[in-house]
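Record 1 of the preview.
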Amino acid sequence: MWAVSGLVRLRHRPRGARGPSRPGGHLHAMLPSMKPEHARLAGGLILLLSVAGSWITSRSQPLSPAASDLTRPATSVVAQATTPPRTQTAAASNAAPAGSGAVPNGGFSPVSPAGGGSGPGPQAAGGAPDGVAATPVPGIVEVRRGADIVYMSRDGKYVFTGDLYEVATHKDLTEARQRELRRQLIDAVPESQMLVFSPPKPKYTVTVFTDVDCVYCRAFHRQIATYNQLGVRVRYVFFPRTGPNTVSWYKAEQVWCSSDRKTALTRAKLGEPLSSKPSCVNPVAREYALGEAIGLEGTPGVVAANGAMLGGYLAPDALLEALQQSAQLN
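->
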């Protein structure tokens, strides 16, 4: 369905059913069996329904047209909004790809449903949206949580999800905004909390969300020297996709608590046991929450310096090409 308004066009995504007891209830039950692309759309709809329901029950007056309403904290604009856990794909698998054993470009290991752990992970947390901002469309505002975006009318009567395009330039304004949000979220993490593999004079930098046990992450790391030779600086952050209180989470903490973290990461990705105890202060939980916030659905998650999501595993030449293309985005 398409609607044209002024300088923009709105592409609406497929809609789904709403559960009887909570927004998106039936969708929550179906998420583990959905294809990744369908799960992403369903997740957006669940967020949309959650925000809409909270808006309707918490406000009796329309949004003020004053600009100050767009800059005040989201909690004062969309009160008591509760966002359900982020969309997850099919159960995580550590098995190697079928066939000859070659790892295809774009491959990634999906996140486990419900985090896989025995404790409540960051994705279980609810809360209000992170912010509300103006859009180029008169009367429409952006409501965001992490890098997720939905749109709402100022009077609170209409809410929708989709991609906002500028007709004159064919620019995807939603993706451009999400790139900026991803960049801001990642830039808030100091490099002292990352594991950095860099050539002497890097041309590009990528942030890679990695899981010690992910087959595609291991394939990526086996070629770390080649990435560096091509001028690509790799900054690793942890994203044990099975979630808290799992073996992969424990291994990530072991890597960070090792005296030589980079060597420990390489050994762990080779399947070698580590002797270090995961008893030190470490960034694993924060980086896992960061991956949730930017909408990560699997590992490795490769993000360019400008916030563009490049996807999963890419062979060195393919990653270099993707970075060259990404550098042209504005």
